[in-house]
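pinned: reference chain
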Amino acid sequence: MSAIRNILIIAQDGRLQYEALLFAASLRHFPQNSALNLIVAEPQPGPLWSCDPRISRPAIRRELRALGADIVPLHNRIWGEAYPNGNKIEALRLLPKGEPFIFFDTDTLITGALDGVDAARATASVMVEPTWPRITLYGAGFAEIWGALYDMFGLDMDPTLDKRFGADDWRRYMYFNAGWFTGPCPVEFGQIYEDFARSIAASPPPSMATQALFPWLDQIALPLVVARLKGGRPAAGVGLDGGLDGELSLHYRALPVVYATGTPHAVEVLERVTGAPHLWDIFNQYVAFRRMVFKHQGRDLRARMQSAHLPRTYGKLQRQIREMGHWVR
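pinned: its structure tokens
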């Protein structure tokens, strides 16, 4: 077993700086996480940004450091503002070579101890919907599209298939939510990820002619990276089954989702860390926290959602919350 040592998130001006503070505060809420290194990659001004993307609130910067975060400058070489999802790829080079790591999207609430998460093999979140590829009547199917991508990089697709599902079922093919991924070496992972993503963007296979690459590029390349590194879907205790996306973390994407679908424990963690005497005034400056937490609209949403039928997709969930008047991000 190779337990994680380093955790990477991205923080920049706007919403992400508040979410980064929530991530850090929820991480340190659990004493078992005190020894884990939290690296916060901060994009820097440059030719790939039209504005200054750095954390703009000095109080957030101060509290992140007080929570033991190491704020490291990220100088974009490839994507920047044009494709912010690429920050997660570029930032991997900031982590120590050869040390087990985990990357989290910043809009994640930590709800348990991460010190026992095994990073011995590359893997990623399977809390995913069939967002890509979008199969059309006259276009290529799943097998042709994914097969062409595996062939493009000399990879064998067969060991990655979940053969409980047929060729026309998206679940047969390894597809991840890039909201978290982990592996034994961030430098190797990041270099492969960068090479694969850039190659796909520059010269996609003909079978992908009708497919949109953005914003899905990070999730298109990710299973190929995992396959190259001889990884796969999360093992028991790492993802879903008592692990990430289960007892240990919640990738909420928008704060109302914590109240709409989160466990009572997740809601308790959210309200406890945001209500801390030295943090509540900072969180109160941002509209989503002010409305959901401090004006108790989240509790109202939760009560209404508990008597409603929960949609199966994120898009439908968003629409339902919006219809209730509680969508804010």
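why pinned: Strands lie at 6-10, 37-43, 69-74, 101-104, 108-110, 123-125, 177-183, 249-251. The CA atoms of residues 109 and 250 lie 5 Å apart.
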